[in-house]
Structures
1.
Amino acid sequence: MSAGARRMAAWSRAARPGIVAIALLLGASLPACLHLVAPYDDQTERETFAAARAVDLFYGGILEARSDARRYAKFSDRYVQVEAELRGLVLRNEVRPLNEDSVEIAHNILTLWQQAKDRHQKSDGYENGAARLDRDRFARLFRYALAAERAKPGGDGAADEGGAAVGIDPDAMDSRSPGGR
Amino acid sequence: MPIDLDDLLNEMTRAAGGVLAKESRRVRAAIAGVLRDQKDAIAAIVAARQAGEIDDAEMQVQLRSERLAFSAGLAMARVAGKSAAQKAANAAFAVIVKALRVAVG
């Protein structure tokens, strides 16, 4: 055996524990390395339920009021409160890595809310037909937001059937918000 | 013990495939649910217009709003898809880890 080969063999024997340790470390870390989507976040779910409830209460108030008692000024404070909640929800989703899909959902909810507010402000009224359609759409979007959260690793996979299992209706929100899963 | 790469690949494929078979059903169900929601929402808008509850201008607004709702639904389905892919990939990686542990004794 040449001097070079002997040196290589000696180095290999000396380095073997280190190589094994690195291989084990690499092997042990592989499953934890692959992340395509943010993990489930309980706080986001609670905030989503709270925002869903606020929007549903808002529309409950609109639909309870007589058509001629739906002037924008009467509801402007609640628009501001709900918008603040929705902006908080967008921000909470934005600061989490690998979470762009939930950001899109939250952002779409916020956009639709601002559009509804602008229409109410311009027309100074809110007809029953539009209010019911808007309320149902918001409920659906919150259901998507919750289903997306629960579909993430660590959640319970509620994206099945378009998130129907999450079931956002006023009764469900009463029992689940905030924090009750 | 040496690692048989063919066996390893087969085992990884089985592990990932098993997870994907289960998870892909969930993703398909999520997409089907979103499409069903969309159909129901459009039907509700048309019904409201026919009942005179909304006018033509409001119907256009409602239909435009549905685009954002639909894209939100697809975003939800994308999360389910990514989560499924992550689970499948990690199942395959778990096979590598197990093989490595056996190989290094």
2.
Amino acid sequence: MVEPVGLGRKNLLGMADLTAEEIFRILDTAASFREVNARDIKKVPTLRGKTIINLFFENSTRTRTSFELAGKRMSADVINISASSSSVAKGETLYDTVATLQAMNPDVVVVRHAQSGAHVFLARNLPRTVVVNAGDGRHEHPTQALLDLLTIRDHLPAMKRQGFAGLQVAICGDVVHSRVARSNAIALNTLGARVRFVGPPTLMPAQAEQAWGVTVHSDMESGLAGVDVVMVLRLQNERMNGAFIPSVREYFEFWGINRDRLNLAAPHAVVMHPGPINRGVEIASDVADDPKRTLILEQVANGLAVRMALLYRLCGGRHGDERAAS
Amino acid sequence: MNGADCILIKGGRVVDPAHNLDTTADLLLEGGLIRAVGRPDVPAGCRVISAAGLVVAPGLVDMHVHLREPGYEYKETIAGATRAAAAGGVTAVAAMPNTNPVIDDPSVVGYVLEKARVAGHANVHPIGAITRGLKGEALSEMGLLQRAGCVAFSDDGRAVMDSGLMRKALEYSRAFGALIIQHAEDSALVGCGCMNEGVTSSRLGLPGIPNASEEVLVDRDIRLVALTGGRYHVAHLSTAGALTAVTAARVRGLPVTCEVTPHHFALTDSAVGHYDTNAKMAPPLRDEKDRQALLEGLARGTITVIATDHAPHDIDSKRVPFCQAANGVVGLETLLPVSLELVRDGVLDLKGCLATMTCNPARMLGIDRGTLEVGKVADLVLFDPEEAWEVDAIDLHGSGRNTCFQGRQVRGRVKTTFLAGRVVHRDGT
């Protein structure tokens, strides 16, 4: 296997695989692609002739749309396959689905799957194809972490910080089921930031301190004290009724992000959320709607740029060439 | 004496843990029985097999094996699993009842015994279900099952969760002196867990299974043993905490025993690596602290049995994302070499190590095997304790290739296996 020059690796399976240098290379490329997305004609020929398959075994609107747009804006042929419309519904095994895809020789397969490790299964069985993990179970969601890092990096000057080193980030809520939390914790660690997990003990992963070098807080008051970034996680509907937390109203009362709690963080602190948000569950509406504190829509915009950058680099492009290609 | 069906195994290191024997000697077999040990007079025409440099030991007894037949012949058959046993030097296996139909009726016991007899690779001793259909609702017919040939009772694959029913099982089993083998995992604490709960499960984003899932049931069961006096055995014990409980129960003189598998004493949950479904089994591989406790339990003699929990699967049951993969690994053909690591590491001496796979389980199950005593059936294994080889699933003899020891460099190779004086396996075949 000849490694593409763009990223020094074939696949993006998780943030655990990326060095700080590789992360910054992707972020720098993403920053240039934002310029393309601001144009009147938002299409460049960079990936013309490449085939990208978005293979989504789990419902997703924003991530799938973002990958689809990213591919299309770079002129790739993009196919979306979702579990409900595919032969998965007819009982085909994942192995056979993947073997069928391999026979069609796509350049990139972007996969989302409810099972942790499904991306590894695909990468193993798609030796000739670039595999991008768009979320595997509760394990990793690396492009979410990359777009979060890009968003944070834009705001570092306002936080009077030179870089990520020493940055304090609180990841709040349903950490145990969250691939977003894992990818961000790993990536922020790689870049030298300090991460806290904050939430009810039933929603914290086992031995998180040893697993990621984070600190764990069961109360928001200590968890948010002085932090620069508050990352709020979505509480899945199926966790709300007794098995993990007693009720939504108790959850919001003790772990929801509201004005008062946000005031415990640093004065310049920003709020992020991977979406879709549950207003009145993990985040109060007035916080969610405050554009000075909450970066949710910037995250979405950056998601598109990051995915363009990633696809471009995994397909062999170098930073600095992307505009020439346009 | 007539030399026609006579075999002399000459010059081997004869190890018979049942009689505390470890010496260089000859072994004379005749009529499928052990006729003499030492320097016997050899009848004319007797076949001579040199065992120089080899260990001559009783055929191994594995008290925890899944044969998959009847019902799951696409995974493995009685003939295939017992062929793997012979290749591993195992001449007797106790067969768990989670087949389809379940071994909860004498007719199924008869079916299994007949299939094993026809295959002729190893002795099979069925284990009956504790509860009918393994449903955990009503006791199975232990008396009739025992009379048909069952050597113990277990709902292996799942625990008897109902405390009242477990009490009744332990009580009722006393009428027949039967052994109750518990798969000690609290199903509510296991939940959707698919590997050991800890740093590795957290990093991989896999739901974890806490040690407490085993410990709470072992603790409960030991109290029920104290209440009832039933004979109780913990299958595939995996945690330090459960071992502490078993140790305390044995000190109190309660009829409590336990077994450990080679994978649990040789590996930790780090073997899951990048979602390797061949490192998935129940109970799961634990952490290094637990592994060390198991080694100590073996060294101190609290753990008296090594058993494989041999669980063959077809490729499709394992070629799926980790949480969806079937539990279980094959073990019959790696039992001896992986256990011999205990000897090289100074945990047990060779005699003590072999005891856990011969006389100890044989006594526990009440089967007349596991020794080289004169007059006993000549089930034995000849192995080279030093020969190095690499485990490769492709070389295994059974249908199930799901080994968690793939690529492991091991030492100790079975050269010949005898079943009632007949060669059932020769290395290289």
